[in-house]
Amino acid sequence: MPSVCVLEIHRLCHFKNVRMPHRGSRKCTARQAKQQPIACSACKPVTSLPNGLTVCYASKYDVSFLYREIFEEQLYLQHGIRLEQGDNVVDVGGNIGFFALFAAQQVGPSGRVVSAEPIPALHEKLSYNIKSHQKWCATQGLPAASVTPILAGVGSGQQQTMEFTFYTAAAGWSTMYPDDEEVQGAMQVFLEQSLSGLQGIESSLLTSAGQLLQSVAPKWVTRPIERLFVQNMLQQQEKHVCSMMTVSEIMQKHDLQHISLLKIDVERAELDVLSGVSLSDWQRISQLVMEVHDVQDRLQRITKLLRHDAGFTSVKVTQDEQLKGSTIYNIYCC
What we know:
The chain is an alpha/beta fold. Helices cover about 40% and strands about 15% of the residues. It has a 7-stranded mixed β-sheet, with helices on both faces. A hairpin with a 5-residue loop joins strand 1 and strand 2 (about 55). Helix 5 (about 180-195) packs across helix 6 and helix 5 (about 180-195) packs across helix 7 (about 220-235). The longest helix has 21 residues, at about 120-140. It starts with a helix and ends with a strand.
């Protein structure tokens, strides 16, 4: 059935024979001993990555996707973006913390990582994963920075609180600006592109069957099934009123004189975050990587802001092959 194949698309990466990269450290494989989970009644469920690191997650679909994107593909270290020992990193839209953990290993003990996540359930899992990662690094003899988690959303500074929508079945979609139609469109593109070439997906009997069905079944058959699947995930949601702060406030509160890399992934709140950086603070931010949802000319407005107000000399816009034709882009600035 096509619905089974649509579900299979989210098994983006089985952890078979996958390695987590480390700068200047020994390689770790799935044969290493598994870490004993940290006791935390609120942080369930947990799973182990191939290297033995135990992580807590909100939606299991996110684990393999984030691992592949951040650790394997190193999405945030492309197009001239670099992290060195001693760098400072601010992570806006921390989710369960995979980027923060990756950055902590890149910048080492002399660096700093601050990760902001507004959804209480995700912040709990972020905090759990930070502690688990610290313990794992100690047992592996790996140098890493400490990560500071912040329970707050990041915006323009005009609101003290904002309502966020938390999608429990797809935590990565959580946002303060829900847009079901845009999510539907992006997921439809992603599903069709992924099944057509199995890009980023480990081949299996179901994915191969999905590829075959896509080639023989008309779109009027497959698209309604895809929409129903996404609608079901969107309906599994919670509303949370969360405290807000700005990037400039984070810099001041945490005594960050300089940000080596500002990472932003906030599902349609990109302009809010950028508006919360003062002109003087832009001079203290060396690099930026962000996801942008190009709705209402947002991509053009953001690239203009980054070139003129922020003063970045290199602003590169890219789009993942699996999202060609969608509204989702990545921007790399240095």
